[in-house]
């Protein structure tokens, strides 16, 4: 680096392109750009603009390009973008090029520059989103471009929302699209996602996209999602990923939506299977907490007959977590009884309601009058997960360890 110290830029004329690909030469040129001398900036631009694709993907040259994009004028920047547009997708997919291209997008200032970037990327949006490097370029476009200018991204992800939403990187980009879309764009995009919600919720990544829509807490978006799951609630409740979405709907949807979910959970022949399922039993637990008062009453009545037989309870006696002898039996203590029904655990126990999904069964909800359970019924529901695993007849609430 010392060989470049105090070296006038004019002395390296004709060598600038080669210096860009040298570690020390590149640092020297960056320092010259930082001096903000328009003549020096133009001199570096003259010798590099025809090589911008190669330099943007070079381990050292990409840093020079980032500085040049920052300090050059609009006309010079337009030429750099025009030259890069010839192979912009390859630049975006490159581990070095992605950084330089993000900087290029950050410094666009004119409508002509914006349009050149749109034209270069518009037909490869899904491919870019699914790429480790390319997805950052699309996210930079979302951050920098106006909502109308980003329409090409919304069109691509909306029309391919399953391919995008079920991808590790794509599910994150799809959520950012929801954030950046304007009113009409957001309604259209969420509508496309909702159409495919039954598929998305069963995917390890796609379920987060649907949960993101639910978390917007807008009935206009949430209730159509509930409707898409009609006649599928029990099936989705038994699935590892979609069960999370059903729980979130129980917490966030309107009373009508919650009633629909409870109605399907209470269909003949379903409750026993749901209670014994390592995912669906958490849906039952959440339903007991967030259902309407009438729904809670109906659930208790349906669950009661499925309590384990006395012989089964006795065989798991040592695993039972007993309730306090002085627990109140009057109707005012509905919270404790509801928790007993859902979790079978003493409210003072450290084991109460903590799940591998991070949901915690909360007390203190106004649940109305719930039918009382006898101490024997409470004790039966208090069998531990291990007892349930060893004794198939024991109803439990909580995921079994895998």
From TrEMBL:
A GO CC term assigned to this protein in UniProt: cytoplasm
PUM-HD domain: residues covered: 1-327
Coiled-coil regions listed: none
Highest rank taxon of the organism: Eukaryota
SUPFAM superfamilies attached to this UniProt entry: ARM repeat
Start and stop residues of the Pumilio repeats: 11-46, 47-82, 83-119, 120-155, 156-191, 192-227, 228-263, 264-301
Renumbered residue ranges of the record's region Disordered: 343-386
One example of a Gene Ontology biological process annotation: post-transcriptional regulation of gene expression
Record's keyword terms, sorted: Repeat
Pfam families: PUF
PROSITE patterns: PUM, PUM_HD
A molecular function GO annotation: mRNA binding
Described function: RNA-binding nucleolar protein required for pre-rRNA processing. Involved in production of 18S rRNA and assembly of small ribosomal subunit.
Family matches, as PANTHER family: PUMILIO HOMOLOGY DOMAIN FAMILY MEMBER 4, RNA BINDING PROTEIN PUMILIO-RELATED
Protein name listed in UniProt: PUM-HD domain-containing protein
Organism, as annotated: Verticillium longisporum (Verticillium dahliae var. longisporum)
């Amino acid at each position: 680096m010392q060989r470049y110290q105090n070296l006038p830029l004019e002395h390296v004329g004709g060598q600038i392109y080669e210096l860009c690909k040298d570690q020390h030469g590149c640092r020297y040129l960056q320092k010259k750009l930082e001096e903000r001398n328009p003549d020096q900036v133009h001199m570096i631009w003259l010798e590099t603009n025809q090589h911008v694709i190669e330099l943007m993907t070079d381990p050292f040259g990409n840093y020079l390009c980032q500085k040049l994009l920052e300090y050059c004028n609009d006309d010079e920047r337009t030429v750099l973008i025009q030259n890069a547009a010839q192979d912009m997708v390859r630049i975006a997919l490159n581990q070095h090029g992605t950084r330089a291209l993000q900087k290029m997008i950050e410094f666009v200032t004119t409508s002509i520059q914006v349009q050149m970037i749109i034209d270069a990327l518009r037909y490869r949006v899904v491919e870019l989103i699914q790429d480790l490097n390319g997805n950052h370029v699309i996210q930079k476009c979302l951050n920098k471009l106006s909502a109308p200018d980003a329409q090409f991204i919304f069109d691509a992800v909306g029309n391919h929302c399953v391919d995008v939403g079920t991808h590790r990187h794509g599910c994150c980009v799809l959520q950012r699209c929801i954030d950046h879309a304007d009113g009409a764009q957001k309604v259209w995009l969420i509508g496309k996602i909702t159409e495919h919600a039954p598929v998305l919720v069963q995917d390890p990544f796609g379920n987060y996209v649907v949960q993101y829509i639910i978390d917007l807490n807008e009935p206009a978006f949430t209730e159509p999602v509930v409707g898409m799951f009609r006649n599928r609630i029990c099936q989705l409740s038994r699935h590892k990923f979609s069960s999370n979405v059903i729980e979130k709907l129980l917490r966030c949807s309107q009373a009508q939506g919650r009633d629909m979910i409870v109605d399907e959970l209470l269909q003949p022949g379903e409750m026993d299977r749901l209670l014994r399922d390592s995912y669906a039993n958490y849906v039952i637990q959440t339903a007991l907490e967030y259902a309407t008062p009438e729904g809670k009453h109906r659930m208790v009545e349906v669950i009661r007959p499925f309590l384990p037989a006395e012989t089964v309870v006795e065989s798991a006696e040592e695993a039972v977590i007993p309730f306090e002898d002085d627990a109140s039996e009057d109707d005012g203590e509905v919270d404790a009884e509801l928790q007993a029904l859902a979790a079978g655990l003493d409210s003072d126990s450290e084991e109460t309601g903590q799940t591998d999904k991070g949901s915690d069964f909360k007390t203190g909800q106004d649940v109305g009058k719930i039918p009382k359970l006898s101490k024997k019924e409470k004790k039966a529901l208090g069998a531990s997960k291990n007892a349930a695993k060893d004794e198939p007849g024991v109803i439990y609430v909580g995921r079994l360890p895998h």
